[in-house]
Design brief:
- It is a single chain.
- With 274 residues, the chain is an all-alpha fold.
- It has one domain.
- The N terminus is likely disordered.
- The protein has twelve helices and no strands.
- The longest helix has 46 residues.
- The radius of gyration is 22 Å and the shape is globular.
Length: 274
């Protein structure tokens, strides 16, 4: 009796292990982003001053130099790690519930599947998004539309249009439908459950697709706010988390939509006035 009170139940043990694993994943991701941010800031300064002094090249010329293979890989890794650090916290309720339901099904002699398979499926989707984001980063950088490889948009038109588009998107039925899938983990599992490892992978992929469809325009605002502006990246992460788990998350998203439209419209109006 005493031993049973002291020893944690399998469900509680699973919850602790998964929470610890997710926390470690997020901490490592953010630690990597801090290191990359510092390295890129230092290298941008050295590259701009060094090449400008030695070869008479302007800062703008330095920025539009094409990427080599190492830079492509580095940027892809950076985007992939950033997406993990930003999106895993908001996916945690779904991951924890998947683990709980999975363990309970094991008690009913149903096959047990590692929760990591579900997480892998989810991460695969955001890895695909990272491929697209890396290419977009390259296009913007080589056309001198970013203040450096990991800077913010230097085009008021691009920034204004992205802000307005993201704000309008927050009010669309598509956004609402995808957000509801993210806000109701039990409903998702009841309608999307698949047995076995392949089933868990498909569920992770499907949840990741709902999540990406819900947040893709918000993620593109990184180009407006700064690819390596960790303060804004953290703010976006918190916003996505609140939108998915807060009781009034839907209206938090819609209120932000109004603010984004006003912000973007003000940038575009400034262009017209000048």
């Amino acid at each position: 009796m005493i031993g049973s009170l002291i020893s944690p139940s399998p469900l509680n043990r699973d919850r602790f292990i998964i929470l610890a694993g997710l926390l470690l994943l997020v901490v490592v991701s953010w630690g990597y982003l801090f290191l990359v941010s510092n390295d890129m800031n230092n290298s941008d300064i050295q590259m701009t001053s060094g090449m400008g002094d030695d070869f008479g090249m302007s800062a703008a010329t330095v920025r539009i130099m094409p990427w080599n293979a190492t830079e492509w890989v580095s940027m892809f890794i950076m985007w992939s790690v950033m997406m993990v650090g930003m999106m895993i916290p908001s996916a945690s309720p779904m991951i924890l519930l998947f683990s709980k339901v999975n363990r309970q099904r094991q008690y009913e002699n149903q096959p047990y599947v590692r929760t990591s398979i579900f997480v892998i499926g989810y991460v695969i989707v955001w890895t695909f998004f990272s491929v697209v984001a890396t290419f977009a980063n390259f296009v913007l950088h080589t056309n001198a539309l970013l203040s450096g490889m990991m800077g913010q948009s230097e085009s008021a038109i691009l920034g204004g249009c992205l802000l307005v588009a993201a704000g309008i998107f927050q009010w669309t039925p598509w956004k609402n439908a995808c957000l509801n899938q993210c806000r109701t983990p039990m409903g998702f599992l009841m309608t999307e459950w698949r047995d076995g490892g392949i089933g868990a992978l498909k569920m992770g992929l499907r949840h990741g697709l709902y999540c990406m469809a819900c947040c893709w325009l918000i993620m593109l605002l990184i180009f407006v706010l700064g690819v390596m502006n960790l303060v804004w990246i953290a703010a976006l992460s918190i916003f996505v988390l609140l939108e998915k788990v807060a009781p009034k998350g839907l209206w938090i998203g819609r209120a932000s939509g109004v603010g984004l439209v006003i912000w973007g419209a003000s940038l575009l109006l400034n262009i017209i006035e000048t």
